[in-house]
Amino acid sequence: MPLIIEGRVPDGWAERGNSRPAPEVSDARRAECVSLALINNMPDPALEDTELQFFELLDIASGDVPVLLKLYSLTGIPRTDRGQRRLNSFYFGTDDLWNNRFDGVIITGTEPRCADLRDESYWATLTAALDWAERNTSSTVLSCLAAHAGVLHSDGIGRHALSDKHFGVFDFAKTANHVLTSGTGDRVRFPHSRWNEVQADALTACGYTVLTQSAEGGVDSFVKKKKQSLFVHFQGHPEYGAQTLMKEYRRDIRRFLKQERETYPTMPKGYFDAEAAKLLTDFRDGALSDRREERMEELPEAAVSGGLQKTWHASAMSIYRNWLQYVISKKADVAAFSAMAAAYQQPARKRSALR
User: Fold this and answer.
1) For residue 332, what pLDDT is reported?
2) What is the b/e burial string over 276-305, where b = at least 16 CB atoms within 10 angstroms of the residue's CB?
3) Reduced to 3 states, what is the DSSP secondary structure of residue 331?
4) What angle do CA 148, 325, 198 make, to 5 degrees?
5) Which helix (H) or strand (E) holds 232?
6) Alpha-carbon distance 255 to 183, whole Å?
7) Which residues form the catalytic set?
8) Nearest to 312 by CA among 225, 207, 185
9) 151 and which of 157, 248, 322, 342 could share a cystine (Cβ 3.0–4.6 Å)?
10) SS3 string of 70-88?
């Protein structure tokens, strides 16, 4: 069943012809759907790609379950005029968010500018969204930096800077039995792209359950119930497309050639085959000896991109399908409780009318 976008459908998804807009949704129709909010805080160059990644992931993982999705972005995140126009065209404001309840919410991170997340310009709005999610959803997904912000805000868990970017596709062992990892097998595979991490011992000391981790990849996913909502934290990016890590690698190479970073970026691990890695290593050697932005024209992107595979697809589908089933079960529990409450109140009203 097609994913239903509330409001205007972003052009990239509308061009695929597999979604229809829902400017106004009746209460009856809303009750039939799983209602989700996507709070997309990614920087402008990744804004549209992130939309499509989550649209595709939710569309496939939902199967026959209708999903009604509403787009938001937080204030305080730096935007270009183009990015702001996109938000104005397809996204709802935070005032609308505070006045609504959803079955689930997904909150993405953004590129940090400060060493301490509490110094970011959007920190107050982000923490308000986290507090809102505890009271107004059955489950909350926090992606990458949003996961770090979530544990810092609720439990004071700080993140640790890494010596190099944790970048690539990593294997993780399932370390706890949980509804979210049901049927995933003993190992899962996910992309990561981050300069910081939160560590397992700090998480478990504060009541979090680590679901997946490995010696090389560190903690991958972890959960904790916060008031009404099960918070699901990903240090990685199950939603990434096959080309996303390549785009990030290209961006970091350009930053090096433009003198915006001191070191040449490390190649993402577990992502390129041997032939592609050789081509990119040869390009790196040339760029190190002749550091000019013009060399970007020689980057063998076309030669390596054709062979890139979304090797984490099965893991991403499984965990998001489990997440949606969890949200559906909680929605059913609320509906059953409401029906019981209504049935109980009806005789009471009749008795009151007879007095």
Assistant:
1) 86
2) beeebeebbeebeeeeeeeeeeebebeebe
3) helix
4) 15
5) strand 229-234
6) 41
7) 144, 237, 239
8) 185
9) 157
10) EEECCCCCCCCHHHHHHHH
For helices 145-155 and 123-136, give the axis angle rounded to 10 degrees. 80
Amino acid identity of residue 192, one-letter, is H
Question: Contact at 8 Å (CB) between 308 and 246?
Answer: yes
Q: What type of residue sits at position 30? A: R
Query: pLDDT (tens digit, 9 = 90+) per residue, 212-250?
Result: 999 999 999 999 999 999 999 999 999 999 999 999 999
Residue 291 or 349, more confident: 291
User: CA 171 to CA 155: how far, in whole Å?
Assistant: 28
Task: Determine how β-strand 4-5 pairs with β-strand 20-21.
Answer: parallel
C-alpha to C-alpha distance for 350 and 195, rounded to whole angstroms:
63
Q: Are 166 and 197 in contact (CB under 8 A)?
A: yes
User: What is the H or E stretch that residue 205 is in?
Assistant: helix 200-205
- Tokens describing residue 88: 């104005």
